[in-house]
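hey so i finally got around to running the thing on that chain from the lab meeting. sorry it took forever, my laptop kept dying and i had to restart like 3 times. anyway pasting the input first so we r on the same page abt which one it is
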Amino acid sequence: MPAPVRHALLLHGAGGGGWEWNLWRGVLAASGIEVATPDLQPADGGLEVTTFGDYLAQVRAALRALPRPRAVIGASLGGLFAMACADEADALVLVNPLPPRPWSASLPSKEWPDLVRWRGDARLASTRRALPDADDATALFAFRHWRDESGAVLRAAQAGIDVAKPQCPVLCVVSTQDEDVPPALIRTLARDWDAELLQAASPSHAGPLLGRSAPALAGQVAGWLSAR
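ok and heres what got predicted. didnt touch it at all, straight out
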């Protein structure tokens, strides 16, 4: 019988950071899974010149630093990086991920400047609307910790990244509603990849990480990983 997963790399979404996994970190640790939650770093020239490849190199290095068996867990943009590194993981968990080609063609169309000013343009009211299932303290924390993002990375994700079908077990977590990544799109990806599907109670894109039900969801994911 394969050894259970005991290490996991958790990858945040665009404009966020490792703090997005605060509600998951303790739950996974209590299940015997050591986690790493790095902040993706801009290139030396700043976010305006940071590319998808710059982030991907960081992700691969962080994943290779973890002992095996190891899982990679990614949310939103982090999910796309997780898929691109699945060949070096023993289990893959995708939370409302930005999909690769060909599913990326069905994403809502968006245009991104070279620097996406999510930090400077952040408002508590808009953060609250984006996290309808989060408590007030979590929404305030998120508002204070959003960061700017590389437009080139987001344009690359929007255009579509080619990734191979993972050979490791895959779990897709999908919200009931999501304006950024339509739930039906992730269900189709899960079906095409023979992945397991976990329906989250959250009605928002980031809710599975930051909503009130996030700890319970993390427990379900921990159970899935332990069974791997």
